[in-house]
Amino acid sequence: MENKKTVEQKQNLNKKTTLSSIVSLLPFGLPQIILFVLCGSFYAYVGMEIILVSYLTPELEREWDLSSFQAGFMLSALFAGALAGSLVTGWVSDTFGRRTAILFGMLLSCICKALLLASTNWWTVSLLLFVTQNGSAASNIAFTLYLEFVKPPQRATQTMVFCIWWTIGSIVQVLFSWYTLEFLNWKYMILFHIVPAVLFFFIMIFSLPESIIFNHSKKKYFHVVNHLYKMNPGINEKKKSTKSAKQNQFEIEKKINQYLLERIDIKQIKDFFAQLESNSKLQKKFKYLMFQFRKTNNSNLDNLANDQIGFSGLLDTQNDEEIGSISANDNNNNDNLKLNVIGKENENVNENSDENENNKLIVNENDNSEENEKENKKEKEGSEEKSIRFRDLFSKKYRKLFIFFSISYVCISFAYYGIILLSPISFEEIKQSKFLNKYVLNLFQTISEIPGLFLGIYICKYLSRKTSLLLLLAISLISNTVIIFYRNTYVFTILLMLMRGCLLAFYMLIILFIIECFPTLVRNRALGVITAIARMGTILVPYTVYNSLGLNFPLAIYLAITAVNIFVISQIKAKTKNKSLE
């Protein structure tokens, strides 16, 4: 019986520590809040953009006496830019990092918006809107970056909460547009849109971190560990914590150390810390890792000189029984990695064992047991999955998913952006009320996205991804059907609000579904290609809004598209709820 326990303990120690297991222990602290605000601000900025253009186009149509085709072409250029941008930013993100893609996208978008102020004809505006969306397409990258720092069980909830930034941006832009178009002109509307974005861009340069999962996939393990220490709540804590809080901080620290020791050999770790000691710039870059090293190694390299790295934990010395220590020894050409685990957790394993009387369990790297071979096989399969090439997205394993997600994303993009562009136009047909104008109507419809997101949060807790998506589409389908056949000002407004809220919740949930289904190194390229395919469809959206057939024409199209989307989602069999993103 004791031998079985010992084997089980060895197997547990041989399993590599995953990032998901560490992130799951980390509380939602200040680093996550800062990331939430930074990524959310960029998402809000892009949410403002579609509202900006929906008001800008009618203004330019009147001022420059444009035809319906020219007005529609400007909006089509916007979506065509999103098509190209989705491919470019997705590739940049998976190749150079999430942070690089976001900063590049935001800078490009701000520059093009500033040039819009000097535009004097519709084709210049069309070109600038096209290039603008090349940068703004990085909004999905911001969403991905934030999710890669979120615990798997909280991912669906955080998705919906994060999407509130989009709604906030839309509300702010409606208010900006209302004020500037009533009292100033469209150039001030663009100016009010740019200034906050430029300020946030400079803040993001100094504050936006790189994804720990991206760094992990690129084998930048020291960068990963440095950021994990930053997120550990006890790293900079000066006040004394409770015993349970210290124990939790220690467990986090122990897992972080295990993560590093399992992936970097001792010589590399020693060389890296020695380099840190002599390089002040690197110390600033890896300040949290350096802080931890100095704390656990008495601010010197003595342990490294003795071929040993010790990690002491955060508990008081009087609680030695509850302290676990991890050390990695490089003993004179001995390539075996030793993990010494001391504490209550292995008392039962060793209580009758003469070999382990010092409470030490030594696991050799060259252990050729059948259990280790199986474990190595699993790790090899996982490594192969992480090295998946982009063209493998079209292999048998991912082909159906890719096609179904592409069709569904085309449908939801067409319907959602169509409803947004329809809001100012629909006012002309339903303005029987003296209490409504096009700004109030659009404001109400934008605010309605918030209840839709809360509905999405609620159903995601209890239902699978697929069932949640189908329910949101069903509500939208019913609302769309009613407003086609029953045209009343208040009924139209309320049901259009409900429809828009459900469509946005679906929009965010389908992005989450896509992110969970594809591997790390191609995740954003897959999302980028799917988004690009969707943009091909949305290029036609403006022509459904600007037509001579009335309001029922676009509504009937959105109804048919929603029905198609329901069929497509029903064919997806993937189950990804609480799945690790590594």
TrEMBL record:
Keyword Thylakoid listed? The answer is: no
- Disordered: annotated segments: 348-382
Q: Name one GO cellular component term.
A: membrane
Where it sits in the cell: the answer is: Membrane
Molecular functions per Gene Ontology: transmembrane transporter activity
Q: Tell me where the transmembrane regions lie.
A: 21-46, 66-88, 100-119, 125-147, 159-180, 186-208, 401-427, 439-460, 467-486, 492-515, 527-545, 551-569
Major facilitator superfamily (MFS) profile domain residues are 33-577
Keywords linked to the UniProt accession = Membrane, Transmembrane, Transmembrane helix, Transport
Identify its membrane topology class.
Answer: Multi-pass membrane protein
Q: What is this protein called?
A: Major facilitator-type transporter hxnz-related
